[in-house]
UniProtKB/TrEMBL annotation:
SMART domains: FAS1. This is Fasciclin domain-containing protein. It holds the Pfam family Fasciclin. It comes from Gelidibacter gilvus. PROSITE patterns: FAS1.
Amino acid sequence: MMKKPENLMKQETKMVGGAEMYPTKNIVENAVNSKEHTTLVAAVKAADLVDVLSSEGPFTVFAPTNAAFDKLPKGTVITLVMPENIEKLQEILTYHVVAGKWSAQDIAKLIKDGKGKAVIKTVAGGTITAWMKGTDVYVTDENGNSAKVTIADVNQSNGVIHVIDAVLLPGMAK
């Protein structure tokens, strides 16, 4: 599902967290400039995932904002970024990543084809379910928690980011 080169030139630069997100930069290069994603960037660094998310991909990242991380129980983020919890942090972060570049239009088509729901496999191995409420796209984790896509189609050189308003968590029974 690679985009044609001529389409690359038409991709717009979007504003996220007060910073321009350039389609010519990779996921990490753009995310570090977003004031709304400092917690996510710190977590990606703590989980040693910078190289992965800087690689060719393509990836689709459902990127929780700082406010999304703030909704977690107090102390959760501090605990997760501790070196002894790196595997759990990696699992949670890669649960927000899907292989391939899936635009909002692609996801909407999957939802339509799935008669209202699309089950999507994450890089972590779990699944998230995409669905729509009116024109808004939501993703639900394996525990039934939902996040709304607040900014869609933030194109990157190695994929696309969809900003979400909650942190998704993989199923606890594995």
